[in-house]
Design goal:
Length: about 180
């Protein structure tokens, strides 16, 4: 697993609640056990029409969010079926951190096991980060210091020391 370093860049906002794993990576793309190549199918049903033509209005198809490394989402992100392909698709696209008010338990654990940082932040702060990010501003996340930097503000976040250390050192289950 790749070590998690400080992260800085554009944050795409898909602030819907109950985004399920089939929305993150539709079932027709689950025919592989490889972790790469799935990023192009991330949020496929939102980003492409029935003729497989890219929808210009979808946030991940617009600059600078087509190169986002952070995703801001609504509550209960990653609900639905247990699908390790969901964090794989996010990581393959380039997203290293998902910020949401809450996560489905299985998605949360799959994310950590694959090196994706799931940050649980209160809804009122999510709204501030979303507004800041929609204006094409970059966020900075320091896992080492447990801080998010935005608009000359510093937000502290909580994460257990064992998860933090695991991500900082890049340890998967075997390395643990």
């Amino acid at each position: 697993m790749i070590k998690f370093d400080d992260l800085e860049g554009p944050a795409a906002v898909i602030n819907d609640i109950n985004i399920d794993t089939d929305d993150i990576i539709p079932k027709q793309f689950l025919k592989t056990i490889r972790r790469n190549g799935l990023g192009k199918f991330l949020f496929y049903n939102r980003g492409y029409d029935k003729k497989n033509v890219e929808k210009e209005e979808f946030i991940l198809n617009k600059k600078p969010w087509n190169e986002a490394n952070i995703l801001i989402a609504g509550a209960n992100f990653g609900c639905g079926s247990s699908r390790e392909h969901a964090p794989w698709a996010l990581l393959d696209f380039g997203i290293k951190c998902v910020i949401a008010p809450s996560f489905a338990d299985i998605f949360y654990n799959n994310s950590i096991k694959n090196g994706l940082l799931p940050l649980t932040i209160p809804k009122n702060i999510i709204n501030k980060l979303s507004e800041f990010s929609i204006n094409k501003n970059s966020l900075k996340i320091s896992l080492q210091n447990k801080k998010i930097f935005y608009d000359n503000n510093i937000l502290n976040f909580e994460i257990s020391d064992d998860i933090r250390d695991r991500l900082l050192k890049g340890y998967d289950d075997i390395e643990l």
